[in-house]
Amino acid sequence: MGYRNFKLAIYCPVGDLNGIKNINEFDKSFSFIEKYLQPDKVYLETFRNSVTIEKDKLLLIKNYFQSKGIKTSGGITTSLETTEAFRSMCYTNEEDIKTLKDIVVYTANIFDEIILDDFYFTNCKCSSCIDAKGNSNWAEFRTELMKHISADCIIKPAKEVNSDINLIIKYPNWYEHYQETGYNLKDESLLFDMIYTGTETRDPQHTQQHLPRYLSYFIMRYLENVKPGKNGGGWFDPYQCYYNPASYADQALLTLLGKSREVTLFCLGSLLNRYYSIFVPIAGYIFDTVDEFIGSLGNPTGTACYLPYHSCGEDYLHNYIGMLGIPLEPYPELNLAYNNIFLTKNAAFDKDIVSKIKNMLLSGKNVIITTGLLKAVQDSGFDTIANIRCTDRRAYVNKFAISDYGVVFNKMAFSEKPVLIPQLDYSTNDSWQLVSGLGCENNFPILTKNSYGKGSLYILTIPDDFGDLYYYPAEALYPIRSAFSHNSDILIDTVSKVSLFTYDNGIFVIKSFLPFTQEVAITVNKPGVCLNDLVSGEQIKGLQCGNKTIFNVQIAPMSYRVYKETEVY
């Protein structure tokens, strides 16, 4: 029983556990899950919304799962009963702190592992918290507060009653805003034995969380690089996926493409609920099929991204970029082992970022920055690198021109709708436009290139609506992908919403998020190679073009293809 290349867990909220009236009847219900899935573990929750579970009942359920060969761990959700959306505990309130300690000790006496669901934050603004905050801002106050609560009220009491316990903090999908509610990714990741990753993406348009599908992969990689080898897995749910069941399958696929060691499905009650149970066989299909090839993937590769701890900027922009077919590998610290570095406005939280950009360029690296970062640092000595500024002016464009690094544009393309972009001021012959948006007797940079030292600086113009990046035509996207993928083995040429995932052993995955079949041209920067489809076994031959080989493939709607480069003998 179980999958070969990853573990599967199911999270069981305390309300679902309390709802089990007869273990034999529950066994009949649980058989539906076992029909499609191969669970290795369950997380049995002991507290949520001020509700707990009696020890005898908890032990009965624990023994039931263990009798089936399913491991059991504890779970705690630090939320209180409320009529509001979410109400955290107040961590300046002694009664709430005592409640937390008591439930931690109770759970640690029963389990050797505890995971904290991603309500382990504080959004409390009571008078006590306001007084305790003093002159600090909320992010500073809350991150420091939760660091101490983690050490003194969770880790210390749990280890005192169970020295072998494995304590896991699960981080939510909204990484841009962790610090605002006290999620201290920098310090808590060191305090806890392991971390865990929320890879939910929801409906990016019709819900309050605007999270493109690529986030299910991107955040797995980010947290893996926060605590290498100790990122326990990825966790997602079926909510806001009913509009398109393929969106649920995408969460499962991308979590695993991010090399998740374990996948947790939230939650038991929903998976058995008539409305959401449709997602159980969908998950089973993804797990079965992905398990056939996921073990063949090497280590993920891509353009290095720098998201400093406690930073925010252009909200979730990286994931819109990932939806353009650009592989990304994010880090909480600047990783100079990479030759291609992508910096968004988040990087402005590093006060030395301008000097670091300068040094990277001097050493021969390619640095791609957004107009958001440019505007944040352009008055901090950036003009010593390039005489270019992001203005407050805007322009609508729907016609694009492409250059091969010369004065004359040699290709034109149109978008389906006008895109609102910021206008840049730059010095002729100091900056070169590789892609431009055309106005009325005017044009505006979309992608510019500047030489500095041994390196190249690229500035990517970001529309006011990040989703409008999807309207950049394929002809404009190709040079943008080229800037990100300088000296990379793989480059694709197609429209947006086709993502590329690359690995260090010559395997790559192309994933379509489109509702229609799409042609994709794949350039492998090697001569004399073919592509083997690791799923179908098909061998694809390409067209030799100098030192490159070009392949033309079709990707079915919402599907993916897994290829491995092999030499032609």
Task: Give your account of this protein's structure.
By secondary structure, this protein is of the alpha/beta class. It has 3 domains: 7-296, TIM Barrel (Alpha-Beta Barrel), CATH 3.20.20; 297-484, Rossmann fold (3-Layer(aba) Sandwich); 489-569, Immunoglobulin-like. The chain contains 15 helices and 28 strands. A 9-stranded mixed β-sheet has the order 12-11-13-14-19-18-17-15-16. An 8-stranded parallel beta barrel has the order 1-2-4-5-6-7-8-9, surrounded by 5 helices. It has a 6-stranded antiparallel β-sheet with strand order 10-21-22-28-24-25, with no helix packed on it. A hairpin with a 4-residue loop joins strand 17 and strand 18 (443-452). Helix 4 (94-108) runs parallel beside helix 6 (138-161), helix 8 packs parallel to helix 9 and helix 9 (245-257) packs parallel to helix 11. The model has no long low-confidence stretch (mean pLDDT 95).
Q: Which CATH C-level class of the largest domain is it?
A: Alpha Beta
* Gyration radius, in Å: 25 Å
Query: Biggest sheet, in brief?
Result: 9 strands, mixed
- Compute the average pLDDT: 95
CATH topology of the largest domain: TIM Barrel
Strand tally is 28
What is the count of DSSP helices, taking H or I runs of 4+ residues? 15
**Helix content bin:** 25-40%
Unreliable stretches: none
Strand sequence of the main sheet, in spatial order? 12-11-13-14-19-18-17-15-16
Distance from first to last alpha carbon: 40 Å
CATH architecture of the largest domain: Alpha-Beta Barrel
Structural class: alpha/beta
In CATH, the homologous superfamily of the largest domain goes by the name Glycosidases
Instruction: Report strand %.
Output: 25-35%
Oligomeric status of the shown chains? single chain
Principal-axes geometry comes out as globular
Structural domains: how many: 3
